[in-house]
Amino acid sequence: MSSTSDHHVILRVTAKFLIPIITLYAFYVQFHGDYSPGGGFQAGVIFAVGIILYALIFGVVDALTLVPAIFARYLALFGFLLYGSVGVVAMLNGGLFLDYDFLVAEGPEGHWGQHIGIIVIELGVLFAVAGSMLTIFYSFAGRAPEIDDEDW
Amino acid sequence: MAEFIFERYNYWAVIFLMMIGLYVTFQAGNMIKRLIGLSVFQTSVFLFYITLGKIRGGSAPILFGHDYLQEHGGHEDDGHGAGHGGDHAAAAGHDVAHSANEGVDELGRPFVDGYIEPGHVGGAPLQELYSNPLPHVLILTAIVVGVATLAVGLALVVRIRESYGTIEMDEVREADIKHADTEASAETA
Amino acid sequence: MPFDLVSLLPDGFVRHLPVLLVIVPLLLAPVCAAIPSWRATWAIALGGIVFSLICALGLLQQVMETGRISYALGGWAPPLGIEFAVDMLNAPILLLVSAIGVLATIFALPTIVKDVNKEKRALFFAAYLMCFAGLLGVAVTADAFNLFVFLEVSSISTYVLVAIGGSRDRRAFVAGFNYLIMGSIGATFYVIGIGFLYAATGTLNMADIAARIPEVADSKTIHAGFAFIVVGLGLKAAMFPLHQWLPNAYAYAPNFVTVFLSATATKVAFYALIRLLFSVFSPELSFQEIIFTWVLAPLAAIAAIACSFQAIFQTDIKRMLAYSSVAQVGYMLLGLSLASADGVSASLFHLINHAMMKGALFMAVSGVVLSLGSSQLRDFAGIARKAPWTATALGIAALSLVGVPLTAGFLSKVALFKAALVQDWWWVVVVLGISSVLAVLYVGRLLETVFFKTPGPAQLQVKEAPLMVLIPLWVLALACIYYGLDASFITTLTDGAASVAFSGGQP
User: Fold this and answer.
1) What is the rounded CA–CA span in Å between residue C380 and residue C383?
2) Residue contact B45–C195, C-beta within 8 A
3) What value does the CA radius of gyration of chain C take, rounded to a whole number of Å?
4) Which of B129, B134, B188, C500 is at a distance of 20 to 30 A from C388, taking alpha carbons?
C-alpha cells in the first residue's frame, strides 16, 4: 500500500494516535500484573495487536520494516528461553526447577526471589507471546494474495 | 422440573455450544468451517471450566479488605518465604515447626507437611468470599493451546489451498482419487 | 539392575533427573529453531535426546532401588503444586521413548535429506524436539491437567511433523489436517473429563484424585468424566473405532516421522490411558468393570480382527503396517480389559515389543524407499537380492510381528494368552489366534514379495540402505531376537509396572 492513496486518511490518523496508546497499555498490563490481574500473556497479545493494527493500516511491507519477521521470531525464541532460564538458575542455586525462592541469596524470610522470579517469567511470556503472534500474523499475511474476488 | 432446568442454565449453554461445535466439525465440508466448529467446541469447554470456578457471592480472587491487611499489615517478614519451601527454612536452621508435619507456625498459620493450608492468609482464615482462581488459570493454558492448534490448522488449510486449489473436503478427496487413478493407469499402460 | 549409572552422575544432578529429562529437549527446541544450519540442529537434537536417555536410565535405576520418586515443580508441594513422579509404571515408558528417540534421530540424518526441503530442516528438528519433550512430559507428570498440556505440546508438533511431508506428497497436508481435527477433539474430550473429576474431587493431582474418588464413585459426574477421558485418550492412542486418522498420517508423513510416531506417540497415549484407568480410577469400581468387559474388550477384539483384515488388502506397505498397528493396539487393549495384573503386564510387554518391531519395520521400509522412491508393495518385488541386510532385518521384525517363536512378539502373545486363560476368557485366545492368522497373510505377502518375487528393472537399481539407517535398524531387529530368547529384563519391568498400576498410584 503506497502512501499516496489517502482515502484512508481518517483511519491512518486515528491509528497513529491509537498505536502508542495500545503499546503503552500493553506495558501497563505487563507490569501491573505483579500485583493485580494482568501479565505477560495478555500484554503480549495487546502489544502484538498494536503492530498488527499498524500492518493492517499501513501495509505489511511497512510493518516488516518496523518489526522484521526475523526479529519477531527471535523474540519469541528468546522469551521461551528466558522463561526456561529462570527455572534453570533456580536449579543451579540449589532449589527445585522454577523455585523462585532460590533466585537470590536471601534468608528464609525474604521474598525478593518471588518478585524477581515472577517479573522475569512474565517478561519471558511477553516476549514469547508477542513474538509468536507477530510470526503467525506475518506468515499468513506475507503469503501472496492469490484468491480471486469471486472465490470469497 | 423448571427449577432443575433453570438452575443449571450455565450447563445448558455449555452443552448447546458443545453440540454446535461438534456438529459443525463433523458435518462441514469446508475446512475453515471445520476449524470454526472446533474452536466453538473448545470454547464451550472453557466456559464449562470458568463456571466451575464461580462461587455465588464470591469476588475476584484478589485479597482485599481484612484479608489484605492480614497479608500485608505489619508483617514485613511473612509472605511466601516462610511458608513455602520448608526444606530451606530447615536448612537455615530456622524454627523446627517448619519441618514438623503438622502444626501451627509462629504466625498462627496451620501447617501440613511444611506448607500453609489453603484458605488461610496471614494467620487467619479468609474473611471474604473469593471465586476459585484455579479453573481460570487452567483455561488460560487451554486457550493458548487452542490458539496454537488453530494457527497450525489454518496454516495447513493455506497449504492445502495452495496445492489443491480448494478447501472443500469432497473436492480434495476427488482430486486424490483422480490422482491415484491416473497414476495407476499410467503404470498399466 | 545390570548397571550402576546413578553413582556416575554428579551429586546435585540426580535429584533433578525427572525434570531435566523433559526440559533439556524442550529448551533445546528454540535453540534449534534459531540456528540456520540443519546439520548443527541435528547434532543438538541428538545430544538432547541422548541426555534424556541417560536421565531415563538413571531414573529407572533409582526407581528400582528406592521406589517412587516425586519432584515438586517450583517447590510447591503436591497435591497443590504440579508434581512430576516416576515409578515403575512410567520409568519403562520413559526409557522406551528416549531409546527409540535416539535410534530414530540417528536414522533421521540420511532420510531427512530426501523428505524435507532444506530451509525447513532446522525448524523440523525444533518441532521434533518439542514432540519428544511433550511425550516424555506426558509420561512423567503426575498432574492430570499438566498431562493435557504436554499431550498437546507433543500433538501440535506432531501435526506439523506429519504435514511437512506435504512438500513431497500433498496428501500429507490433508492427513495432517484430519489428524489435527481428530487429535484436538480427543484432547478436548480429555479436558472435559478432567473438568468433571475436578468438579467432583476438587484436585488435579492424580494420586490425590485417586484417593478421593471412592467417596464419590457412584456419582454421574465421575461416570461422565470417565467416559470422556476414555474416549479422549482412546482417540490419541488410535483405539478402534477412533483410529481413522492414523493410516493416512503414517502413510504420508516423512519416513522418519512415521518411524518415530509409530514407536512412541500411540504408546505414550496408551500409557496415559493405563495411568488414568488403573491409578486414578480403579478397576474395582463397578462401572469400570462393566465398561472393560462390555465395551473395551469387544472393541479391542474387533480391532484385532477387522484391522488385520484391512491390512491384507492394502497396496501401500506403510498403510498396511499402519492398519496392523491399529490391530496391535487392539491386542494391548485386550490385555488391559482383563483388568488383572497379568493382563496389564502382558499388554505393556506387547507395547514395548510392538514399539521395537514397528520401529524396525518402518525403518527397513524407509531404507528401501530411499533408493526406490515408492512404498507400493508391488514395487518391492525381489529387493532382497539388492539390499540383503535391510531385507533380512525387515524379515526378522515381520516375523516378530506375526509372533513366530524365538522372537519377542511370540513371548508377549503367549503372555496375553496366559493372562486371558487365567480368567477363562477363552474367546480372547480365539480372537488373538484369528488375528495372528490374518497377520501371517499380510506379513506373508510382504515377505514373499521382498524375498521371492523376480525384481524388475527399477528394483535392480535399489541400493542397500545407508549405514546410518542400518545401524538403528539392526539394533531394533536384534532386540526383537534377544528379547525373544530372554525377556526377563522387560518382564521384570512390566510386572513391576503392573503392580504399581494396581496399588492405586499411591507412593
Assistant:
1) 6
2) yes
3) 21
4) B188
Q: How many CA atoms lie within 13 A of A104 on its CB side?
A: 14
Quick one: average pLDDT of C170-195?
A: 92
Q: CATH number of the domain at B44, please.
A: 1.10.287.3510
B 71-90 residues inside an 8 A Cβ radius of C: 84-85, 87
Give the closest residue to C335 by CA, choosing from C385, C369, C301, C371.
C301
Q: How confident is the model at residue B90 (pLDDT cuts 50, 70, 90)?
A: very low
- B142 and B98 co-located in one domain: no
Nearest neighbour of A111 by CB, restricted to B60, B80, B151? B80
- Asked if residue C94 belongs to a domain, the reply is no
What does the alpha-carbon distance between residue C105 and residue C111 come to, in Å, rounded to a whole number? 10
Distance, in Å, from the CA atom of C326 to the CA atom of C247, rounded to the nearest integer, reads 9
pLDDT digits (tens, 9 = 90+) for C209-259: 888 888 888 888 899 999 999 999 999 998 888 888 899 899 888 989 999
Q: Is residue B73 part of a domain?
A: yes
State the Cα–Cα distance between residues C326 and C305, nearest whole angstrom.
10
Contact criterion met (CB < 8 Å) for B38 and C170: no
Rounded Cα distance between C65 and A104, Å, is 35
Using left for φ > 0, alpha for ψ between -120 and 50, and beta otherwise, residue B118 falls in beta
In a domain, B60, yes or no: no
- Tell me if C253 is assigned to some domain: no
| Greater pLDDT, C263 or B97 | C263
What is the rounded distance in angstroms from the CA atom of residue B116 to the CA atom of residue C386?
A: 70
Asked if the structure places residue B106 within a domain, the reply is yes
Task: Report pTM.
Answer: 0.89
Q: How many domains does chain C have?
A: 1
Smallest CA–CA distance from A93 into chain C, residue: C12
- Residue of chain B nearest C192, judged by CA positions: B45
B28 contact C CB<8A: no
Residue B8, chain C, CB below 8 Å: the answer is no
- Does C222 fall in a domain? no
Q: Is there a domain that residue B14 lies in?
A: yes
Region C425-432 average pLDDT? 88
Chain B residues inside the 8 Å CB shell of C204: 134, 138
**Which chains reach chain A with 3 or more Cβ–Cβ distances below 8 angstroms?**
B, C
Cis? peptide before C79, omega within 30° of 0? yes
Domain count, chain B: 2
pLDDT in tens, A23-82: 999 999 998 877 777 788 889 999 999 999 999 888 888 888 988 989 999 999 999 999
Query: Are residues B24 and B75 located together in one domain of the fold?
Result: no
Specify the residue for cell string 537399481: C461
Looking at the partner chain, which of C19, C23, C34 has a beta carbon nearest the beta carbon of A77? C34
Grid coordinates representing C85 are: 513422579
Q: Which residues of A touch B68 (CB under 8 A)?
A: none
pLDDT in tens, C278-287: 888 887 777 8
- The pLDDT mean for chain C works out to 88
**pLDDT score, position B121:** 57
Record: contact B160-C76, CB cut-off 8 A = no
Q: What is the ipTM of this complex?
A: 0.89
Residue B83 has pLDDT above 50, yes or no: no
The residue out of B125, B147, B164 marking a domain boundary is B125
- Do B150 and B183 lie in one domain? The reply is yes
User: With 80 as the cut, is the pLDDT of residue A145 above it?
Assistant: no
Same domain flag for B177 and B152:
yes
Residue span of the structural domain in which C501 resides: 298-507
Using the beta-carbon criterion (under 8 Å), do B135 and C198 form an inter-chain contact?
yes
Range of the domain at B7: 2-54+132-188
How many of the other CB atoms lie within 10 Å of CB of C377? 18
Chain B residues with CB inside 8 Å of C185's CB? 22, 25, 38, 41
Nearest by CB: A109 against B77, B151, B155: B77
Task: Indicate whether B138 and B112 sit together in one domain.
Answer: no
Selection from B38, B33, B140, B47 nearest residue C187 by Cα: B38
pLDDT at residue C457 greater than cutoff 60: yes
Pick among B63, B77, B78, B138 to test the A interface (most A CBs inside 10 A) = B77
- Per-residue pLDDT, C3: 67
Whether residue B113 has pLDDT greater than 50: no
CB-CB: which of B31, B41, B115 is closest to C188?
B41
Q: Which of B102, B125, B148 is the last residue of a domain?
A: B125
Q: What is the pLDDT of residues C126-173, one digit of tens each?
A: 999 999 999 999 999 999 999 999 999 999 999 999 998 888 888 889
User: Domain for residue C278, yes or no?
Assistant: no
